[in-house]
Structure formats: structure tokens, C-alpha cells
UniProtKB/TrEMBL annotation:
PROSITE patterns: 4FE4S_MOW_BIS_MGD, MOLYBDOPTERIN_PROK_2. Keywords: Iron, Iron-sulfur, Metal-binding, Molybdenum, Oxidoreductase. Residues 3-60 form the 4Fe-4S Mo/W bis-MGD-type domain. CDD domains: MopB_3. It comes from the Bacteria. Pfam families: Molybdop_Fe4S4, Molybdopterin, Molydop_binding. Its cofactor is Mo-bis(molybdopterin guanine dinucleotide). Belongs to the prokaryotic molybdopterin-containing oxidoreductase family. This is Anaerobic selenocysteine-containing dehydrogenase. GO terms for molecular function: iron-sulfur cluster binding; metal ion binding; molybdopterin cofactor binding; oxidoreductase activity.
Length: 708
């Protein structure tokens, strides 16, 4: 019996990017396990991925090209050949381009796989070449990244492994044990060395339960808290004068601004007692090394960007950056020398291009959002918009359009793929090769292909080669092999890759970027922030310049929302939907709904697979505080309807004092099959942009709940 362990890397859109060993027997993957040698993976895989082979060999996999034979959305398909599929797509697209122009074609994608060659940008060059509408992908961390760049620049920040040296750790809107679980051992080690762990979250999550101090907060009010911390630190003389003098700009203006945000003001907004706000500020400022880890969730509100601006000012204010294990951790992805322009090829875009934000997809398809030319064809890969974006009813109506030619590349017939005219089978990570960055640690990974593709599944790179061929494109760029693409995916001359060869990377599966050791590294001890001024910018020079753009690799056009200038100082923007800002709305819909990540799903991945559904619960649950439930006569396990001015979905009630009163929680990622009437939480989420980077406001909403 031939038995091998193949070294690969987890493909998911998750900070941990684990090193995976796949046991292959006679060409079949029989098990996966975490690589014990990898310093971050430490031999453990999560509940989502530890049976990855079951995803690969699931009898629900799409393994052949399919063509719709029933009505739109019926999920009735018949097998066709790749030649037929490519022939039909090329013919339809050529016709559309001739009659309406390339912009009538809309690609839609995200990070179904995070591999550098198969992931985010794999389709960009082709769609740019066709002059298709550009899909602006800003629903994950775009407001946060824009704010972060404005304040401290594109720095990796604190090495997540340096947390072992921290003495005061704040996990701010981050459910580490579910969404970044391989970071936990480092936090645990710090605690063994005496660190205090604080979690700021409206929910007593599994992470909050293990913290020394859980601070419940009303959703979307973190900006008020952060500004009050600045207020107290300034007023009580806890500022590191020397650091501020040398390595920041705009302190006086920040101090003056923060004077408006008293602990009393913050308490009224956040629901946190004044005493606790004072204690948090004092402990944070006087317990070095102090570190803040922000979760993506902190941004999903009207003021998400400015919230991150305020938080990003804190470490410089107290000189936290002078210590190993002190400062801020957001996304260390900035450390990886990825050749983004080479992947995206923005140079291929025509001069006039149309940009459509991903969660405007529904109204764009129905025509509610004026589209000239209208969208005639939609091409979805690496994404499941029916499960993950707002305006679900409109999206469903748009996808049901008879004249819309929809193609979806997938592993499964998702809620989105169900509406396709053509479904194309995609390989999983075991069936393809790739090179991987991480947004949660500093190791570059290589995913060796473990098994041959199942059925007629192809990798995304191969899919786009086939499309280019069918469309008669002759530029050799579109026909590079995976190896050539991997070779071109990084700037190998970058100092962080000094001495690294692809051969070594393939053999070992991962290498640490050539950065100082985590035990000995305070990245901004001497300032050196990659901002325009080289300093931490309390007062942002980018914002002071008027309307500005932070081009992100996600084709997010960060910056101010729609052309207006941005206040260069951090400030508090209250939620769009709250008792204070929209009392009339709150009279009908008094509860705040958030939809954080599920422990057992990865976004909507695994929302159809038995092991993960068994862990998460087959049906969508909504968690309410027992008093909020009692007020409405709702009992544990009862069927409920959750609704607001935009829509409704049905679920069953789970009662728990772990959620703050006035807050309801619908874990994200469930498919329509798990909801009683089909609609999911995105029937209710708002389509508004946050203040910076066109971030989402998915968690900025009021709802009411009633027994169904
Ligand atoms: N298990 C699992 N892991 C994942 C994912 C997944 O779907 N499942 N998805 C991956 C992806 S794409 C991402 S972006 C990351 C996201 O990683 P996180 O940002 O950690 O994920 P969330 O669960 O969305 O939110 C974290 C916590 O923020 C809280 N929260 C919500 N609103 C607020 C608020 O206004 N203020 C504060 N202080 N807290 C708030 C939620 O209750 C939740 O416990 O996780 C990645 N990892
Ligand atoms: N309510 C709510 N909505 C949210 C969020 C939230 O927290 N709450 N989070 C937001 C965030 S942070 C994110 S990142 C987005 C995520 O939004 P999406 O990226 O659209 O969500 P996924 O569920 O990860 O969908 C990825 C799809 O790609 C498929 N796929 C996987 N690998 C491959 C491959 O190699 N090739 C192809 N062709 N397909 C593949 C998977 O089967 C899956 O169906 O959702 C956003 N929406
Ligand atoms: Mo995300």
C-alpha cells in the first residue's frame, strides 16, 4: 500500500492558514491533520477542517459541468461537457459584448480559497481585459484597513507570537477561540506569565468566558469607548510624552478632540459603567506591555472606520510600541511581498470602467440601481452571495431573471449556484497547488497538490485559462502554468524573502518571513510607521488632503465614502440604527441584531455538511437574552420571526444571559435550507456603507422578534 503525507495549507479565509498534512493512500486522501512542526498550527486543526477529506469526497460535490434544465432556481441540472460549457459561455459573452459592451458582464468573487494564485485575484486579469464591470470587494476589513493605513500605515503590527510577552491583552471585537483559534495558545502562555485578558464584546462568547474581564458593549459604540480611553489617558497624565513627541503627529489636536468624549458620554453610549471605563483606561495605560487585537467585527457599523482610527491611536499614546508584545495587531498580511499588480493587472482595465460594490448586487440585477448597460451576465466564483450579502430578496429576484446568464464555479450547489445557468466544478485544496499568505501570522505557506482532481473539477487558474482560450484571447499571460504563476506571485527579491527558495518552501510547506524574532521585536519602538509622515498620525495627513483613495488588493476603493472630505481627527459616529439616533425606528424595532461568525462554519462553507451542522445545529438559531424573550412571550426552542423594515426570517430561539439585553445574535453562514422560510439574516441587513473604505454595516441594524 502506497502511503504518503503531503504537506499543504488550509485554503480558508481565516487568519490561521494552518499547515496541513494529508495522508494519501493509493491516490486517495484518507485523513488530514495539523502539522506539529508549524509554530502557529502546532499540530491542531479546527472543527471546520479536521475532516476536510469529507468535504473533498462528499457525495454532494459538483464534479462535472452542469447546465440548467428546469426553471431558474429549481436546482435542476444536466451534465454537459467542458467544451459545451466553454462554447456556450464564450458565445453568450461575445454576443453581450457586441450588443452592450463588456460592462454588461459582472464578475463576483471573494476568498472561497485564499491561495494567492487561485484566490482573490485569479479572475481579475480576464475581466479587466473584457472591460467587465469591476466588482468592488469591501465587505471584509476595508473600513478597518483604510483607518489603519491612515493612522499607522501598512505595518504588520505586533507579531501575534509576541503576545506571549504581553501583560495586558485586549481582544476587541474578536472571538479568538472561534475565528483565530491558533492564536489562543500564545495568549494562554501570556496569562500563565501573569497577563490579564480583557474581551470587549456584546456577547459572552467562548473567548469572553475564559477572559479575566469581559466588558459587554452595545454594538457599534466602540468608537465612543476608544475616544473616552484617550480622554482619560490624556487627562490623567498617562501619556508617554517622549514617545508622542518623537513618533506621532497631531497630539494637541487629538487631546482637544478627546476632551469632548468624557467617560460619562461613553458610558451613556456603550452601556459600560463609568467606573469600568476608568479602570480599563488606567490598567491599559499602566500595565506594559499592553496589546490590542482587533477583530474584523469592530468595523461593521456606520462609524467602523473612525472606531479603528481611535483604537489605532491608543498604543502610540501610551508608548506601548516600545515593548516587545506591546502595540496593535490587525492583519499582518501587510508583511507579505505579494505581487498584487501582477495578479490583478489593473493596467488591462479600459479607461472608463464601472465599479459595483458586492452588496449592491441585488438591486443592480433587478435594475433598481440604475445600470447602463444593464447586467446581462453574472460570473460567480470563490463566493456565495445568497448567503453572505445584504438585500437577499432583491438578489433572489435578480438571480431569477430569465434573461440573466449566470455562471457559477463551485464545490457544491450553494444557494447561489442553484440559480446558475451553468455550474462549473471546482477543485478543493487537496486537488490543486498554491502559495499562501496569512493574515494571522508571519509564515508563507505552500500547498502541494495531494491528489488528482475528482471527476472533471478544475482549479480556478485552469478555469480562467480555459475561458481565455474559448474567448480567443492570445496574450500568453493568460496561459501561464500554475508553476509560472506561483513564481510570479511574490517579489522574491524582497528582504523578507532573503535566502528563501521555492524549492525549500515546497519541501517544508512553510517558512517564516525574514523578520526579527517574535521574542525580540518591537516593530515601532523607534517609530518608523509606514505613513506619509513616517509617524503615527493622530491627525491624518491623508484625510487632510481632502478626498482620498487607499487602493486595496481587494479592488476596494477605500477612502471617504463618496467624495466628501474626511475629518483628519478620530471622532465618534453613532450607529445608523439605535435608540438614540433613530428613535422612531427603535419604537418598532427595539433590538440590535448582530451576525458574528459561526464556530463550525467558515462563512457559508460547511453550512451543508453533516459534521459541521451537527456541531452548529441543523437550524438557524437566534440567541436572545431571557428577559427580552420573556417580554415577548418567547420560550426556549420556540419558532420565532425576526423582522425589520427591510425583511424577515424565521429561526428558533435560544435563550441565554450571555448576550447583552437588547441584543440578538444570529450566527452567520447558514444556508437557506437551515431557515424555516428560506430567507436568512441577509434579508434584514442594511445596504449602507460605513464611514471609511466602503465597509459594510451588516451589524448596524434594529429588529423586532416575535413568536412565529
Ligand atoms: N469559525 C469561523 N472562523 C472564521 C470565520 C468563520 O466564518 N467561522 N470567518 C473568517 C473571516 S472571513 C473573518 S473576517 C474573521 C472575523 O473574525 P472576528 O472579527 O473575530 O469575527 P466575528 O465573529 O464576526 O466577530 C467577533 C466578535 O465581535 C463581536 N461583535 C459584533 N459586533 C460588535 C461590536 O459592535 N463591538 C464589539 N466590541 N464587538 C462586536 C461578536 O459578538 C463576536 O463575538 O473570522 C475568520 N474566521
Ligand atoms: N451577516 C454577515 N454577513 C457577512 C459577514 C458576517 O460576519 N455576517 N462577513 C462578511 C465577511 S467578513 C466576508 S469575508 C464575506 C464572505 O463572503 P463569501 O466569500 O462570499 O463567503 P463564503 O461562504 O466563504 O463563500 C465562498 C464560496 O466559495 C466556494 N469555494 C471554495 N473554494 C473554491 C475554489 O477553489 N474555487 C471556487 N470556484 N469556489 C470555491 C465555497 O464552496 C463557498 O461557497 O461575508 C461577509 N458577509
Ligand atoms: Mo472576512
Amino acid at each position: 500500500m502506497a502511503r504518503d503525507a503531503v504537506i499543504g495549507a488550509c485554503p480558508h479565509d481565516c487568519p490561521d492558514t494552518c499547515s496541513i498534512l494529508t495522508t494519501v493512500e493509493d491516490g486517495k486522501a484518507i485523513a488530514v491533520r495539523g502539522n506539529p512542526d508549524h509554530p502557529f498550527t502546532q499540530g491542531r486543526l479546527c472543527v471546520k477542517v479536521n475532516n476536510y477529506q469529507d468535504r473533498v469526497y462528499s457525495d454532494r460535490r459538483v464534479l462535472y459541468p452542469l447546465k440548467r434544465v428546469g426553471p431558474k432556481g429549481s436546482g435542476q441540472f444536466a451534465r454537459i461537457t467542458w467544451d459545451e460549457a466553454m462554447g456556450e459561455i464564450a458565445e453568450r459573452w461575445k454576443g453581450i459584448i457586441a450588443s452592450d459592451g463588456g460592462q454588461a458582464i459582472l464578475p463576483y468573487s471573494y476568498l472561497g480559497t485564499q491561495g494567492v494564485i487561485n484566490g482573490l485575484n485569479v479572475g481579475d486579469p480576464l475581466f479587466n481585459k473584457l472591460g467587465a464591470t469591476v466588482s468592488e470587494r469591501t465587505f471584509c476589513d476595508s473600513a478597518s484597513c483604510t483607518a489603519y493605513m491612515m493612522t499607522i500605515g501598512h505595518t504588520p503590527g505586533v507579531d501575534p507570537e509576541s503576545f506571549v510577552h504581553s501583560k495586558y491583552i485586549i481582544l476587541w471585537a474578536c472571538n479568538t477561540l472561534s475565528t483565530n483559534s491558533h492564536h489562543w495558545p500564545f495568549i494562554e502562555r501570556a496569562r500563565k506569565n501573569g497577563a490579564k485578558l480583557v474581551v470587549i464584546d456584546p456577547v459572552r462568547t467562548r473567548t469572553a468566558r475564559l477572559a479575566d474581564w469581559h466588558i459587554p458593549i452595545r454594538p457599534g459604540t466602540d468608537g465612543a469607548l476608544a475616544l473616552a480611553l484617550i480622554n482619560i489617558i490624556v487627562k490623567e497624565g498617562l501619556v508617554d510624552r517622549d514617545y508622542v513627541e518623537k513618533h506621532t503627529i497631531g497630539f494637541d489636536a487629538l487631546a482637544e478632540r478627546a476632551a469632548d468624549y468624557t467617560p460619562e458620554f461613553a458610558s451613556a453610549e456603550t452601556g459600560i459603567p463609568v467606573e469600568d471605563i476608568l479602570t480599563l483606561a488606567r490598567e491599559y495605560a499602566t500595565t506594559p506591555p499592553a496589546v490590542v487585537r482587533i477583530g474584523v467585527a469592530v468595523e461593521r457599523h456606520a462609524g467602523g472606520g473612525q472606531t479603528v482610527r481611535a483604537i489605532a491611536c491608543l498604543p502610540a499614546l501610551i508608548g506601548a510600541w516600545t515593548h516587545v508584545g506591546g502595540g496593535l495587531l490587525q492583519l499582518p498580511i501587510w508583511a507579505f511581498p505579494v505581487n498584487w499588480p501582477g495578479l490583478m493587472r489593473p493596467d488591462l482595465q479600459p479607461e472608463t470602467m464601472r465599479v459595483l460594490n458586492t452588496w449592491r448586487l441585488g438591486p443592480a440585477l433587478t435594475g433598481e440601481e440604475p445600470m447602463d448597460p444593464p447586467i446581462r451576465s453574472l460570473f460567480v466564483y470563490n463566493a456565495n452571495p445568497m448567503a453572505m450579502v445584504s438585500q437577499q430578496q432583491k438578489l433572489e429576484a435578480g438571480l431569477a431573471r430569465e434573461d440573466l446568464f449566470t455562471v457559477v464555479s463551485e464545490h457544491f450547489i450553494t444557494d447561489t449556484a442553484k440559480y446558475a445557468d451553468i455550474v462549473l466544478p471546482a477543485t478543493t485544496q487537496l486537488e490543486q497547488k498554491d502559495i499562501m499568505f496569512s493574515w494571522g501570522h508571519l509564515y508563507l505557506s505552500y500547498n502541494n497538490q495531494a491528489i488528482e482532481p475528482l471527476g472533471e473539477a478544475v482549479s480556478n487558474t485552469e478555469l480562467f485559462r480555459r475561458l481565455a482560450k474559448a474567448l480567443g484571447i492570445d496574450d500568453p499571460f493568460f496561459f501561464r502554468s500554475d508553476d509560472e504563476m506561483i513564481e510570479a506571485s511574490m517579489d522574491w527579491s524582497s528582504p523578507v524573502l532573503e535566502g528563501v527558495t521555492l524549492e525549500d518552501l515546497k519541501a517544508k510547506g512553510y517558512i517564516r518571513l525574514n523578520m526579527p524574532a517574535a521574542d525580540d521585536w518591537a516593530p515601532h519602538r523607534d517609530g518608523n510607521f509606514p505613513t506619509p509622515s513616517g509617524k503615527c498620525e493622530f491627525s491624518s495627513t491623508m484625510a487632510a488632503g481632502g478626498n482620498f483613495v487607499v487602493p486595496l488588493f481587494r479592488q476596494g476603493y477605500g477612502g471617504s465614502q463618496s467624495g466628501e472630505t474626511v475629518d483628519p481627527l478620530p471622532h465618534y459616529i453613532a450607529p445608523n440604527e439605535s435608540k438614540r439616533t433613530s428613535p422612531d425606528l427603535a419604537a418598532s424595532y427595539p433590538l440590535s441584531l448582530i451576525s458574528p461568525k459561526s464556530h463550525a462554519f467558515l462563512n457559508s462553507n460547511y453550512g451543508n455538511l453533516p459534521a459541521q451542522l451537527a456541531q452548529a445545529g441543523e437550524e438557524q438559531a437566534v440567541i436572545l437574552h431571557p428577559d427580552d424573550a420573556a417580554d415577548r412571550g418567547i420560550v426556549s426552542g420556540g419558532a420565532i420571526r425576526v423582522f425589520n423594515q427591510r425583511g424577515a426570517f424565521e429561526a428558533f430561539a435560544t435563550l441565554s444571559p450571555d448576550v447583552l439585553r437588547g441584543v440578538v445574535v444570529a450566527p452567520a453562514g447558514y444556508w437557506q435550507r437551515s431557515n424555516r422560510r428560506g430567507a436568512t439574516v441577509h434579508a434584514l441587513t442594511p445596504p449602507a456603507f460605513a464611514d471609511l473604505g466602503r465597509g459594510p454595516t451588516f451589524s448596524d441594524m434594529l429588529v423586532e422578534v416575535a413568536s412565529a
